[in-house]
């Protein structure tokens, strides 16, 4: 029987990158990405605190395959901070693709954190850039608000949700991923690897029926 949560003022819902470019027809569409929107809207109505991240890339972002002549999207390259997947151009600042999905109910969001705006480094996690050391400041924000438990949902399970969950644990929060309110890219088995690592690290995988 699944656990049922009684939400308190120390709980926060973290909505990851529910943006047009990650939904059907977008530049980097996650399969069934938009299917999470109704579930997330229901969660937003229940949580005492909610915040969201937004990929926010300059046009010449170094994670774009277009910036690496001869390289293809979804291939790998080496960056100063390690291996980097090369992506199609997506979530460009101020463009339609970077906007939240139009059906996402954003009025209750207390913070929108934009990430990936430094051209030289990608940022999957809501907490750190991909060098694993440059902070976004989210930890301090949550600590100041006395948040203890972080519940994650959004896109994509195996990249930005996964990295955010692992970093939230690293920063001392109790972490839950609401699995049915996420969708994955699943690049060469990346979903299974992410789920396995999250479980082994102490992230709890739950569903939206737990509330």
From TrEMBL:
The keyword Lipid biosynthesis does not apply. It comes from the Bacteria. Residues 12-209 form the Isochorismatase-like domain. Its EC number is 3.5.1.19. The keyword Metal-binding applies. It is an enzyme of class 3 (hydrolase). GO terms for molecular function: nicotinamidase activity. Keywords: Hydrolase, Metal-binding, Pyridine nucleotide biosynthesis. Belongs to the isochorismatase family. This is nicotinamidase. It comes from Kiloniella laminariae.
């Amino acid at each position: 029987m699944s656990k049922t949560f009684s939400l308190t003022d120390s709980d926060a819902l973290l909505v990851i990158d529910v943006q047009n470019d990650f939904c059907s027809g977008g530049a980097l569409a996650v399969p069934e990405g938009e299917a999470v929107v109704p579930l997330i809207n229901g969660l937003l109505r229940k949580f005492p605190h909610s915040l969201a991240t937004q990929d926010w890339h300059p046009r010449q972002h170094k994670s774009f395959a277009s910036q690496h002549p001869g390289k293809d999207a979804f291939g790998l390259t080496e960056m100063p901070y390690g291996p980097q997947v090369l992506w199609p151009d997506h979530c460009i600042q101020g463009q339609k693709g970077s906007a939240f999905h139009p059906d996402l109910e954003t009025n209750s969001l207390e913070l929108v954190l934009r990430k990936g705006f430094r051209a030289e480094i990608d940022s999957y996690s809501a907490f750190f850039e991909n060098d694993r050391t440059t902070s976004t400041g989210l930890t301090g924000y949550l600590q100041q608000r006395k948040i203890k438990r972080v519940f994650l949902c959004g896109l994509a399970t195996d990249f930005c949700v996964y990295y955010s969950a692992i970093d939230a644990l690293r920063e001392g929060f109790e972490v839950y991923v609401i699995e049915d309110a996420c969708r994955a890219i699943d690049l060469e088995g990346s979903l299974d690897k992410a789920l396995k690592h999250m479980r082994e690290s102490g992230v709890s995988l739950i569903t939206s029926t737990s509330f």
